[in-house]
Amino acid sequence: MEPTAVDPIRYEMYFHRLWAIGEEGRMTLQRVTASPIVAQGGECMSSFYDAKGVMVLACSGHLRFAAATSQAIKNMMEYFQESPGFYDGDQFFFNDPYVAGSHTYDMMVIKPIFHGGELIAWTATSTHTADTGGVLRGGALEVFHEGICISGLKIVEKGEFREDVFRTLTGMCRDPQYVGLDMKAMIAGNNVCADRYLGLVEKFGADFVEAAGRRMIEDSEAKARAKLRSLPDGTWVSREYVTTLDRKSRKAVAQQLYCTMTKKGDELEFDLEGTSPQTDTDHNSTFPSTAAHITLALTNALFWDVPWSDGKMRPVTLKVPEGSILNCTFPAACGAAPRVGNVLVSTICECVSKMLYAAGRADDVNASTTGNLAYAGGPGYFYGGHTRDGIRVAQGLYDIHGAGMGGAPLRDGVNTGGHMNIPSAGISDIERIEMQYPFLYFTRGHNPDGSGFGKYRGGLGSYRLYWIYGSQDCSVDYKPYGGVAQGGYGLCGGYPTGKSVLRYMVDAGMELLDRVKDGEYPDGAGMRDGTWGRVVHPDGVPERVALPEGSLLIDYVAGGGGFGDPLERDPALVLRDFGRGWLTAKIGEEVYGVVLSDDGRSVDTAATQSLRERARAERKQLGAPPSGKTSALDPGQAAEYDSVLRFHASLEIARRDGQHAIRCVHCGHLYCGPEENYKNYALRRIVDLNDYMEDALPSGEPYIGEYHEYSCPGCRVQLQVDLFCPAMGGDPILWDTRIDV
Amino acid sequence: MAEAKDYIIGIDTGGTFTDVVVMSPSGEVWTAKASTTPDEFSRGVMDALTEASRVLDVDRADLLKQAVLFKHGSTVATNALITRTGVKVGFITTRGFEDTTEIMRAIGRVDGLSEEEIRHATWVTKPDPLVPRERVLGVRERIDYRGEVVVPLSRQDVMDAIRKLVDEEGCEAIAVSLLHAWANSKHEDDVRALAREADPSNKVFWSFGSELAQVAGEYARANTAIINSFLGPTVDRYLGGLQTKLEEGGLEGPFLIMQGNGGVAHRAHATPVSNLQSGPAGGAIASAYVAGLLGHPNVITADMGGTSFDVGLITEGYWRYAAEPIVERFRMLQPIIDIQSIGAGGGTIARVDEETGRLLVGPQSAGASPGPVCYDSGGEEVTVTDCDLVLGIIDPEYFLGGRKSLNKEKAEKAVEEKIAKPLGLSNVEAAAGVYDIVNSKMSDLIRQQVVRTGHLPEEFVIYAFGGAGPVHAGGFSAELGINQIYIFPTSPVFSAFGVASADVIHTRVITCQYIFPAQPEGPNERLDTIEKELGEAMTGEGFKADQVEYRRFFTMRYRRQTAGVEIPLPWDRMTDERLQELQQMFETKYEELYGVGAGYTKAGIEISAIRVDAVGLVTKPELKPQPVEKGDGSQAVKGKRNVYFTRPERGFIETPVYDNALLKAGNEVAGPAILELPFTTIPVPPGARVTVDRYLNLVMEI
Fold it and tell me: Which residue of B122, B449, B646 to mutate against A (max A Cβ within 10 Å)?
């Protein structure tokens, strides 16, 4: 199809100006909002749509919203065209997660733009607002419990602010001022966007604006398709796990997210068949939420250089089984959809990263940014109750944006790099948090041993240790300890997760004040061994628990996954991390095979070398190829193959006489043809997570998964670490990469 | 303070040149320059003074002796931060928070990067912290948000930390920043006392967060203390050495240092971190000074050089500060003049996107090396300068006053192959397209800057700076609906000019919370305290109480908002009535900024910060107006050439070229015209005209 013809120079001016207007809208929004998640966490978005609701351009902000709003507009056009109709000056409030968005907390205000009496475009502004009324976070069983849920209601009518609607909506929330300021912020953002959009129509002409909008969508599609064409064809598979509360047993239960990604030519398909059925908690994702999270995963990992319009998703097909945790059936509750979504993003990115590696795009390859064992369990971060000033809140405290980023082919992951979903995410200063919320922090630091091990380790996540101080009414959502890695992946032999601290609470009481005055200072080890009081794990895992004043809590934010075999990590980096308190000597030896001198100030080179040799030998002693043999081919011919495509740090496809084979790039070991899974011929060692983890879960429950470590039969380099949950079934030997030769 | 014969000397050490401006109170101005000498910056300063004495035809010693004020801005601090060549620093903080400056509020991964860079999410990393984690030590102590001590300071921890950092690690400087020291500096004061005990000879350079900023936000405050210590010894050594040289050379008057806040301060009162960004600050002061002279309340300063386009604003006669300025990717708490930058300059690359056929201009830049195609130094990508050349705006033989000759043929060939052919345009259409697109993008950035302040671009005039600024100013101004552009023949030494005319300024910003309905006593007491401190500083600067002007600002917001609106106070102290009026002022300003109906009184209103600037006005020369002579400037015409204009119609016009040096005050040059200056070129489109005002500034009206 020929692209829409527009004057290239005016088009370029128009493009940049439309983006600048969206930025102006977002800046307005961020300054008017009361919400730190919006103002500092960046969870918001301004965007433009054509007359039919197709997104023309989204500006920076929370990527989830970039994908979410089109459907809301299309739906409103279907239902409200006749009654109440759309008029110049109208603005609609919307937060129905079964149409668009991820959960009811994703709120948007949508404004039709009129020119000469005709509806020519739409603009929308979105925020993640922490309160919708309903039951407090964690307790919802149906979407009806999740507060206001509006599929389009005029909050501004023909330019008149509807005080009645505003009062009704905010009046249903615990924290009407907070929600009200967010609504005002979205209205203000839309006003800026719409006024300026009309200025564009005046300057460039309505026909040009319409044609340019169409062209922007076409251009995004063209860019996306070109990007896809530059990548090898093939099929990639990933499998990740989440846990939630089983309401009958009051224990954690696992679900699996299963993704088959097929790339052919300039098309990309995601088939999520194999994903677990929906749950009877709020731990579900609607189809719109799933689509939004896949879009954001692709925006970050694959289409980062493609302008943000709906066009970039045109080459992408989604198949999501109905009634699954990724496509829940109304009226399932879905408050925790973003958490499912985070794991989904990881599941998608695992496939995409492997595809990008095979295309030689090292700068674009990252292991997971989220994923830690037992991450789900214990007290969460959705507070409820009263602030110090006596204001009733249902507020999240977003230290969660301090996640570690994934390890990369040539460097460690970025420590506390933010949140992949929001390019400019940040966490608040503790001083600012303490001015509002009834907490006193004793630590916010990098999480030792907490990120995926590898030649290049995952970026460190953060942890915090804080004490409830200054409020008699405070509660938090609570989750059972899942005991399985939640959405992490390593690449090329790196581990999906580290060995993290756990999240739990201790009844330290107000006497903590006297103890710290006397020179004691709380830390994680002391919390674990009871120095600061009894570890509280409430019976029956209630959805929410009270946090009496004096409670001491520890929790952490996920670190990134690792890249490459940890035994190949530069010992100097192990020494450095040890010196910084980011790695224990024990892990240094056990995982990295690095022995430090007694004073911890240098590497014992000889001991390191022999330990690493022993560790490699152990891979052979304790591991075995699942097929019973280490090659399907004649290993003697390895040298006769010519390299064709390197799809993995240690593996390539090579060719001899028109025959293709998978070969180790280091030692030349021949595995099998590319139409087979190399893992069948690699050394596999199965490590029970109960042996892997240092600490037992506070609830006494076991860990419920295994790490399957695959290494090369020739040189023993670690190739892949898969997580497998036997209870969930499926093929333990995941065939993750299948390149069409 | 000044007598009739006294000189004011302003020196600005930039990256390439060290500029000097000497002014006499009667309004005479002399300028001179010398090469900057990065191996020993003070040599360049002395060289520049020698040049100046030559221009004035006086002895250098006499020039210095007659200087009533010697003011100096230098890039030494900024340069040391860019090249990470400060000293070895240790950092002492509250135990449990040793990773704060590594965590960087997570936003440190993207701070200081452009939108395009940020979008490549898998690739973006954090800068290395100035203090590696090994030299960050926590001490037991804790103060809460009200300023109450929760955990007393462990003296033992402090002494251990000092010993480790100084004796074992060999740190030359230490920074201290403790949680909530903005609310109560007691523990930092205690550390200072212990430091004196441990380091009686004061051989270590100490910085304290609470001394540099009384604002909540531990990450940026810690950075501020660390940067101050990182730069401190370097800046001190430099300024100390220079002061000695100057005093030996004859200087008797005070030696004042230019600060990023737009004011000068005595060396003893100017912290090293305040030296950052003094160059751009000099430019802003000069602009504010000229704006006062010309009666412009609202000015956009637009500086377009080789790689970047920097925009600053003067509103109601005054410049603005950034809330948490980011310098070299580090977020700080310092009053630094707010200047925004995008990658758009003469070296910005234009190319046609393979997949979509879009004509993309920027953000990549060819920089100075290899530079544009026309530099003939190996550059192969078409740049904005190449297009300016193809359009005939720039003379290949008179680029930078003839200091560099350009290869026009090469530029034309590159434009044709890389842009014109793929788009099916003629060569000049393609070049004109690039010219228009870059202008349009710059106008977008300017607009963003302006609307953030609650103003509209039409209320402003533009001051255009830099080699490429005047070349493009006509274009981006028209996009903004601004029809007055000022270009200053003195602009290459504008920073030095600003330094010379700077007042002494000390600024304090504090975090507070006064919730409405508020009582006047609280804010008044804070104002008393702040002004007492500032008054003492100004006494140290040699000002009497009645010579100091206080400018007061309250930051106000609806409760629980993160951002606030800064309101200049028309009063010195508050009363009940004034508080009511203040609330009204805030709500009015708020609706101006964010639209009618955006305000939400029911959410509650609070004062969240107080800022006071103490300004000691120093003598400023009256610039001497020139006698005005009518005329069309034809005496200055030095030739003609074909120039392509995109306004009001597109096409080549045979255009007279004027030598600006020959234009006289009062001359009016009608477009189409080209005005050539030694550092830039001004295309005057048909229908527009340039007037030379009585100060020899060029005023283009379009």
Answer: B122
Residues from chain B that touch A15, judged by Cβ atoms under 8 A, are: 358
What's the rounded Cα separation, in Å, for the pair A461 and B103? 9
A498: phi then psi, degrees, rounded to nearest 5: -95, -155
pLDDT at residue B397 is higher than 80: yes
**Apex B154 CA angle, B153 and B159, nearest 5:** 120
Q: Name the CA dihedral angle for B430, B436, B441, B443, rounded to a multiple of 10 degrees.
A: 170
> Exposed, middle or buried by CB within 10 Å (0-12, 13-18, 19+), for A147?
buried
A-contacting residues in B 200-259 (Cβ below 8 Å): 216-220
**Residue A305 has what DSSP assignment?**
T
Q: Are A169 and A183 in contact (CB under 8 A)?
A: yes
B-chain residues within 8 Å CB-CB of A30? 562-563
pLDDT of residue A648: 98
Element (H, E) at B645: strand B637-645
Q: For residue A295, which of A352, A243, A356, A253 has the smallest C-alpha distance?
A: A352
Closest alpha carbon to A649 in A723, A719, A573, A739? A719
DSSP-assigned letter for residue A603: B
Calculate the CA dihedral of residues B592, B593, B596, B601 and round it to 10 degrees.
-100
Task: Please compute the mean of the pLDDT values over residues B5-22 and round it to a whole number.
Answer: 89
Lowest mean pLDDT of B292-296, B320-324, B380-384, name the range: B320-324
Contact between A425 and A419 (Cβ < 8 Å): yes
pLDDT tens for A468-483 read 998 888 888 888 888 7
Q: How far is B423 from chain A (nearest CA, A)?
A: 8
The b/e string for A317-353 (b: 16+ C-beta within 10 A; e otherwise) is ebebbeebbbbbeeebbbbbbbbbbbbbbbbbbbbbb
Position B380, amino acid: E
SS3 state of residue A114: strand
A131 token code pair: 């309160």
Q: Mapping DSSP to helix (H, G, I), strand (E, B) and coil, where does residue B43 land?
A: helix
B403 backbone dihedrals φ, ψ, rounded to 5°: -75, -20
The minimal CB distance from B603 to the residues A177, A300, A305 is found for: A177
Report residue A130's pLDDT band, with 50, 70 and 90 as the boundaries.
Answer: confident
Q: How far apart are CA A182 and CA A393, in angstroms?
A: 14
Round to whole Å and give the CA distance between A33 and A35.
5
pLDDT number for residue B4 = 41
Which tokens sit at B284?
A: 């802003």
Q: How confident is the model at residue A40 (pLDDT cuts 50, 70, 90)?
A: low
pLDDT (0 to 100) of residue A501: 66
Mean confidence (pLDDT) of chain A: 92
Strand order in the sheet with B67-74: B29-35, B17-23, B7-13, B67-74, B255-258, B264-266, B504-515, B605-616, B548-558, B565-568
Per-residue pLDDT of A700-714, as tens digits, reads 888 889 999 999 999
Q: Are B575 and B520 in contact (CB under 8 A)?
A: yes
Report residue A728 as tokens.
Answer: 């969930």
Q: Please report the pLDDT score of residue B601 as a whole number.
A: 86
Res A62 pLDDT > 90? no
A423/B110 CB distance under 8 A = yes
**Helix/strand/coil percentages in chain A, nearest 5:** 30, 25, 45
Signed CA dihedral, B103, B106, B109, B112: sign only = negative
Instruction: Map tokens 């737009």 to a residue.
Output: B262
User: Using CA atoms, how far apart are residues A208 and A11, in angstroms rounded to an integer?
Assistant: 9
What does the DSSP assignment read for B591-604?
HHHH-TT---GGG-
